[in-house]
Structure formats: structure tokens, C-alpha cells
Design a protein that fits this description.
By secondary structure, the chain is an alpha/beta fold. 43% of the residues lie in helices and 19% in strands. The protein has one domain (2-138): 3-Layer(aba) Sandwich (Alpha/beta knot).
């Protein structure tokens, strides 16, 4: 699977970028990831196709346990989804504009990783960590080295 992760900011600070690079390396055994830093969704519109899965990460109580998230990822794979777009830090207005721009009914899955109000780059890092955690669960591997 390929994950396109869009963070609503122009760049990621160095220590976050280094941590994300480490998770990208670990995830490369299971999937490919691409981080897109942009304060608008123009890059998303170029990449998105109607059969791609779309996740919108928003604030709120955690949607899934790690095991449930792994099951969700597994279900996406079994449904034949090969590309997943994850949007982080974009407003509800941007979601409404997204529906308008795409011009068709788009199925969006909303999820939350934590009930804390965290920066977009922190949520982005958590997203990478949770993807890695999900794949280790699916492979029956130990998460911690």
C-alpha cells in the first residue's frame, strides 16, 4: 500500500522530520509513505483518484485501539485499496471545499489519534508511529526492539 500523508503546514521541524524518516525506513518493509507539507490541498487534488481511501484525522477521543487500527488497515488491504490519503490539520471548511472540488460523493473516514490538542507535525509523527504499530501487529511481530 501507498500512504500519502498531508500535513497542513509548510514544513516539518528537523527533529520531527528525523523521527518520521526513521518510521518511513521501518515501514518500507510493509508499505510506502509520502509526506506532503502544504497549507492547502492542491497537491492532494493532483494525487487523489476515486478508488483511493481517504482518512481525515481530527481532534477528539481516540477512534481506535492499536489492534482496532491494525484491523482497519487490514480491511482496507482486503478491499483492494492500494492508495490511502491521510489529511491532518485541515479545517472543516476545507473538507467542504474538498467535496465541492471533487464533484462526486467521496467516502471519508474520520479518525482521531488522541483527545489532546497537538500540533499538526506531532499528529503527523503519531500517524507514522501508528501505521508502523499496525503493521507490526498484522505481522505478529514485537513492536519494541
Amino acid at each position: 500500500m501507498t500512504y500519502h500523508i498531508y500535513c497542513n503546514q509548510k514544513s516539518i521541524r528537523t527533529h520531527y522530520a528525523e523521527a518520521i524518516a526513521e518510521f518511513t525506513k521501518r515501514l518500507s518493509a510493509y508499505c510506502s509513505t509520502q509526506l506532503h507539507c502544504a497549507d492547502n490541498l492542491s497537491e492532494f487534488y493532483l494525487e487523489y483518484k476515486a478508488n483511493h481511501a481517504l482518512l481525515w484525522i481530527q481532534s477528539g477521543p481516540s477512534s481506535y485501539t492499536s489492534e482496532e487500527f491494525a484491523s482497519f488497515i487490514n480491511a482496507l488491504q482486503q478491499q483492494g485499496s492500494s492508495t490511502v490519503h491521510i489529511l491532518i490539520g485541515y479545517s472543516t471548511d476545507e473538507l467542504n471545499a474538498l467535496y465541492e472540488q471533487l464533484g462526486y460523493d467521496t467516502s471519508v473516514t474520520f479518525l482521531s489519534l488522541t483527545s489532546f490538542q497537538l500540533s499538526t507535525e506531532t499528529i503527523g509523527l503519531m500517524c507514522y508511529e501508528q501505521l508502523y504499530r499496525a503493521y507490526t501487529i498484522l505481522q505478529g511481530k514485537t513492536y519494541h526492539k
